[in-house]
Amino acid sequence: MKSLLKVLPDKPGIYQFFDEDGKILYIGKAKSLKKRVPSYFKKESSLSGKIKVLVKKIADIRHIVVDSELDALLLENNLVKKYQPRYNILLKDDKSFPWICIKNEHFPRVFPIRNIVDDGSQYFGPYASVRMMNTLLDLIRQLYPLRTCKLNLSPENIKKKKYKICLEYQMGNCKGPCEGLQPEEDYYHFINEIKQILKGSILNVIRGLKKLMMKYANDYDFEKAQIFKEKIKLLENYQSKSTVVTPSISNVDVFSIITDEQSGYVNYLKVVNGAVVQAFTIEMKKKLDETPQQLLSLAITELRQRFNSDSVEIIIPVSLDMEITELKFTIPKRGGKKHLLELSERNANYYRLEKQRRLDLADPERHTIRILARIQKDLRLKETPVHIECFDNSNLQGDYPVAAMVCFIKAKPEKKEYRHFNIKTVSGQDDYASMEEIIYRRYKRLLDENKPLPQLVVIDGGKGQLNAALKSIEKLGLRGKMTVIGIAKKLEEIYFPNDLIPLYLDKKSETLRVIQHLRDEAHRFGITHHRKRRHKGTLRSVLTEIKGIGNNTSQKLLRKFKSVKKIREASLNELNETIGKAKARIVFYYFNRK
What we know:
Blueprint lengths: L1 H5 L6 E6 L5 E7 L2 H4 L12 H9 L2 E6 L3 H15 L6 E3 L6 E4 L7 E4 L8 E3 L5 H14 L11 H5 L7 H4 L13 H15 L3 H17 L3 H19 L2 E2 L7 E8 L3 E10 L2 E11 L6 H15 L6 E3 L12 E3 L4 H28 L1 H15 L8 E10 L2 E11 L2 E2 L5 E4 L8 H18 L7 E5 L2 H13 L7 E5 L6 E2 L14 H32 L9 H11 L2 H6 L2 H8 L1 H11 L3
Parallel strand pairs: 9-12, 12-13, 14-18, 18-19
Antiparallel strand pairs: 1-2, 1-3, 4-11, 5-6, 5-7, 8-11, 9-10, 10-11, 14-15, 15-16, 15-17, 19-20
């Protein structure tokens, strides 16, 4: 192996790793083969476990030298697709995408196709959305009367009058080239404009049509001018549905990437004349814990080949270890190009979320297991948090102090396990002491009743509330038997016991979403109980102090008059209509006795 490494040239190229059976394990590209290939065999702990396993299996190395890094990229991409080595990134491509074909024949037909045939025809695409492709084809059919028949319309056959016009001619959808009623030159003018539209150069076509419209209008041939005006309107309507960025940005490719543990999702936007004319997202399965830069490099090569892109500027989110003289890489910070990159990133993320939702719908249990595993990893828990409980306090300037506990089983609310607490041992407004009381009462009861403890306890609050809860946990001897964390509302910090620095989770993470759901549910449940208690307290302190007036009568009065103030201001007749004469006299004279 050492002798193989020594003879590697300091040139761009691709390298292939083979096992003992001569099977290709991995294909890679390099700006310098001499520098890149030996890096796999250095005794460094920085190499991932997967790469170490790969290196142990290598029995032979072969390389191919090329002229430039671009050639290396293209060759690597083609060889990976051909041999599909075990340790190379897997490009997920579940189906053959449709293309629009302009057939290589006399009076070319324009039609959709899925499998490309090397017959000299021109292909435009592929289109990730069949709907988008059909919209384009419908536009072309409305603009240009093209033939749809499969006849061989060679000059000899037309001269021999082998064919007759069909219903399409009678309907105005075709100009009858089969009988020589349309010159081939006129037909090819249509085809050239169609190619411009399919390439995204709609503005150029519109300009040409406007010139013709004005020419016929100046010649007072208003019928023909009207035909071109209608074509221009159709094209402008279609263009308005494209995502217009800015006319100053033309003919660029935009690539963005979103990654998770298993895959990378690369979105590609093709921009022509300031409008997004094509969008596509590809999934790439990781094999050797590849970085986003490595995934992006491969995707750029693959997608530019697939979509026949000739753009010289590529907008990307991160710098790549690629220097290709023919291409310009741009990492935008602001403006229209930054807007384009953000649009691409949203598309990549939507693709990932949509794929995840499809899998979750197909297997709900898998979805639950995945979320619980994510929470366990993010919060560094010893056990899977199947059972989670969350606590919150509520009071009004120290009055009617209550607390609430909500329970989630398998990351979903278990409402029959929700509990309310009336604070018993704390006077005044003391959130810390209230939290200490309810935590002690909750888990003392679980211990007394020999019920299972939760794996995770969430306290709504920062360090103060968390420390108060931990006092009760210590008293009950439960320290270490379940994880207790606090969540502060301002910046959504996660606090752990004896850890001064909080944990900040990604705002879009599923773990934070579950914790926020717990916190919001505990707050809602606690506020509901607090309002009921406060309402009862208000009734008891005002209306129920009146001798002869009970809760039912108080409720009737409040339903009718909405507040004690309006009851106080009500006339005797109004009270009579609500609660009868006897009780109305009692209430009226109670409030008006002075």
